[in-house]
């Protein structure tokens, strides 16, 4: 039993490693394709793949946590941060609309960490949250019942805005 569990753990580690390897993009430094890996100037992460992975594994908090922690670890690098910022609308949509019951809010924490690194990112994320808040509020600005009101999304947006202000 111990060997089977060990092979499962190593398979999981191998899978995660291959997943991470497949999302790294080599940025061309102008010297063509013959450049060796040690001489490459920049690495980027394929954020389209990362976003799809988060969406595909949205019901598995361990995987989403792993990807979020990985992205947060490399978010200080310009090419990685640019990719995260480019996919902010998709990430914000997942943060607001994921209807899973997780013990922790991994994606929310990830967005807050990135917001601490960049005022520009924080401002864009804030605008997205304010717009979503208006979409899901109980009443329209005219005092009528809002047909798109959603209590879960509304409270999630309020909580995120409060956390961002802190």
TrEMBL record:
Superkingdom field: Eukaryota
InterPro entries, alphabetized: PI4KB-PIK1_PIK
Pfam families in the record: PI4KB-PIK1_PIK
Domain PI4KB/PIK1 accessory residue range list: 64-129
Name used for this protein in its record: PI4KB/PIK1 accessory domain-containing protein
